[in-house]
């Protein structure tokens, strides 16, 4: 069990913040980030909230502004205050002592802000229709050099306990992301790699992303891949239901730890949310440009009963309109469903050391074919993924296509012998048992 730890901010109803805003002399005043008004009573600088508007909220009682990277109801903690750090460390110890396996740390790259509160520079690439906070570059509000010291301290707490993990939620370019492993791997075990969430869905683009990520990783760093999450549209809607099977095989055959978002294993799609059903505060604050995230957060579709078996009463968000057919109970009964594919992929991954911990070796390919080998201790598998709708015939000496198909995304070719050539249907991927290169 891994808990979601949110150390960047609290609710404005939290006892800590209620004390902090009680007076300027309150002992918890410096637990949050307070600043004097700027000229003419305006906010202290130009920092913007991720969810629209200024990142500064005026408190009439104490006549200062407090900082909130997200909602005004989510004031940021002051991680430059050592008391705050020690307090959160004790929160971590509380849960670790109860046996949790670790934490996924929310927006960990946001924890430290510029000590001088300098204005962020304008974004020269900003275009109309983008979220308004992107008008400026977060040079002074995120990814500060001192944040690495904060994460080192968190990791020390984790390491007080055996076999625990620290995962960091970090949206940064790959070359910056990998710095969060830390010097001597003293920071996050897994800085979340979100590159596939926004990747153009074609073979050459994905091949490039894998190459760049593998190349950027520090020596001996353990990789990870994320295919879907609560902030991005559903993978089945991003790439289509046929390619969602290819995406599953990709995720579970790349080197590193895969992270699977709930519902992707049954092919849940992005749900259209009517205006009167919107819950996401981002969409409410910045309507009409497509930033709402409710569509990927709808109830898990367990069965065909009312509310898809998720609840006995009306849930916070609507259930998808296909839940009566696309649900766990039905898909478990279908031996060729996407759920059956995920189960087969996970079982094969557990069975084969090549897939669990083997090297990643790219194989040259063209068009919509993505081809690579996973190998370990003289044994290998070749993964061939057709990211297009047209069939592909492949003959390749470098791929060593001699063996048998261990798994097809269509779940109908297991045991088929391959002798130097491989035919792939449109939207099909296979894992072939082979010899190490």
Outline:
The chain has 437 residues and is of the alpha/beta class. It contains eleven helices and 17 strands.
By CATH, the architecture of the domain at 1-192 is named: Alpha-Beta Complex
Q: N- to C-terminal separation? A: 38 Å
What do we call the CATH topology of the domain at 1-192? Oligo-1,6-glucosidase, domain 2
Mean pLDDT: 97
Give the proportion of residues in helices.
10-25%
Q: Which value, in Å, is the CA radius of gyration?
A: 24 Å
Structural class: alpha/beta
Shape: globular
Describe the protein's architecture and organization:
By secondary structure, this protein is an alpha/beta fold. Among the domains are: 1-192, Oligo-1,6-glucosidase, Domain 2 (Oligo-1,6-glucosidase, domain 2, Alpha-Beta Complex); 271-325, no CATH class. The chain is built from eleven helices and 17 strands. 37% of the residues are buried. Helix 4 links the parallel strand 6 and strand 7 (190-191). A six-stranded antiparallel sheet has the order 10-11-12-17-14-15. It has a four-stranded parallel sheet with strand order 1-5-6-7, with helices on one face. Helix 2 runs parallel beside helix 3. It has helices at 15-20, 82-97, 147-158, 174-177, 203-216, 235-239, 241-251, 281-285, 328-332, 338-351, 353-357; strands spanning 2-5, 34-35, 56-59, 64-67, 102-105, 165-168, 190-191, 224-226, 257-259, 359-362, 369-376, 379-386, 392-395, 402-408, 417-419, 421-424, 429-435.
